[in-house]
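Appendix C: a fully annotated inverse folding record. The material below is reproduced so that readers can follow the format used throughout the book. The structure is listed first as tokens, followed by the designed sequence.
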């Protein structure tokens, strides 16, 4: 079982690295518009807020299943954001 502290760290690291990758892309492609890359950053921030809210939810009956679901959502949303970064033009 992932504990709450480790899950929060994972969320922070994964989404922080995704945002950093977008900033690196923006620096490398300074002549290109950044509307799409800013949308990826906004989505990463929204995902962070959503996942942290779910981690802090104390009403979950089965903590193991609750944290496992959050971990799975982090993985799927992280992969989705990485695919969006790879598709930036």
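Designed amino acids, in order:
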């Amino acid at each position: 079982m992932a504990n709450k502290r480790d899950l929060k760290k994972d969320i922070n690291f994964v989404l922080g690295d995704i945002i950093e990758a977008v900033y690196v892309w923006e620096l490398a492609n300074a002549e290109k518009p950044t509307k799409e890359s800013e949308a990826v950053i906004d989505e990463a921030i929204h995902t962070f807020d959503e996942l942290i809210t779910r981690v802090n939810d104390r009403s979950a009956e089965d903590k193991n299943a609750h944290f496992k679901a959050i971990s799975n959502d982090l993985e799927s949303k992280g992969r989705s954001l990485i695919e969006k970064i790879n598709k930036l033009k």
